[in-house]
Sequence to fold (525 residues):
Amino acid sequence: MGAGGLLERVGGWGRFHVLQVSLMAVPLLFVGSHNFLQNFSAAVPPHRCRGSGHPRPEDPPEGPEGCVRLPANGTNATEACTEGWVFDQSVFAATIATEWELVCGQRSLRGMAQSIYMTGTLLGSVGFGGLADRLGRRVVFLWSLLQVVGFSTGAALAPSFPWYCVCRFLCGMGISGLLINGIGLTLEWTPPRRRAPVVAVLSCWVTMGQVTLAGLAFCFRHWRHLQLVVGLPCGLSLLCSWWLPESARWLLAKGRPHEAQRSLRLVARVNGVPGAGEGLSLEMPEAEQPQEPGTTEGASVLDLFRRPAMRTVTTCITAIWFSSSLAFYALALDVQRFPGEDPFVVQLVLGAADLPFRLLVVGPANRLGRRITQASCLLLGGGLGLLGLLVPRELGWLNMVLTVLGKGLMSASLTCAYLFASELFPTPLRQTGVGIISMVARLGAVLAPLLLLAGPWVPRLPPVLFSTVALASGLLVAFLPETAGLPLPDTLEQAQSRVQTHSFWRVFPWSRGGGGGEGTWQTKL
Fold:
């Protein structure tokens, strides 16, 4: 009996798991809020030049009216705004753009601030993922919560733009840490048959953060107040999550059976089966932990690349995460395709539209398998992106429908990809592997706004690029083994054997057979 068997002996799915998933709701709810915060905190309201001279009201903001003025002597020549700007406050009381005048020649600094934040999430993914495999999931998760609440508050109190960027960078690192370790810790306590719905629920919390952001931004129109409000709830989560036990699966993989036993007994008491907890002797974990030689001790990140089977898994799942993230953020950040709409309503619609996709992906992932579900999301999403190129501008409603469907499919792809990755990597390197591929996914999030900058000059380039990448990644799913219903691999050998023996062509569940008899083409790795 391995770690999965021990989880069943302490009650399987019970009150502990419900409490754990509920506690994860608060921090995950505000992950989406932090990611899209600058849609409001860096918004640019209509503005004009301050001081003497005459503004040009016939021109749009950020054009001549917002950046130049007619001189006071009445000539037709224009001059730059040298005394600052006057901003309209009917929608936003203050933003970083109005407080530090990040307009006209300084407008690129707004995008730089968002890129700095996303760079923090990128580095936090690999940094906190590796630390979690060394120090434990629980301690890194709690530290990430503390880091988010601390530096989000620091950003709200920042006296200057550089300090704001530094705090946002460190806050982004904490966001990645709580995301990958919060979900990772939850999944390692979850029985196999419950993993897909649990991932869907946790993903919905992240998506609900976009909806929550719309409501919070509507209530708090000053960027400092909004920044503070989205950060403080992580402090409450830190206080409420302190009792959560460390992953027994990780403790066993690290050769710490006595600590694993304490964690299991706590879960048994919470689940209402204290007798099962008392029945776990000190020798049981030692006898039941994996015995393959060299599987846990000395495992390093290099094993994900120097072993052919793990290199295949890491490369393919990384490409899937990158393409899903690139397409998702390219669609989510391109709000200019809905000009004239209320920004709060647009944020609400785009966020709420993801919820059914993240929930409905559970059924196919369990019944059809991870592979066909993952491939379908990528291929359909990429196809809709290319189909949108054929829609004329006059049919704006159809373009909006395709955008919502494409973004929803990419969000479902991200949900399935996280579940898939957690089931492919072995316990000693699970958080390291998830951290690495999450870092590459964040790179897609960093590149998405840069890709959209080419839109005004080459309108077809962004959708063609992210759609093509999604289609190509959908084909890579064929190189990965099916993991639906299987226990999490606890050793490198277990993870490798799944890749080495799976059938390359059996992407579709109805083509599966028993045991891989004649006619089964095996992947050669």
Summary: The longest helix spans residues 396-424. Residues 387 and 402 are 8 Å apart (CA to CA).
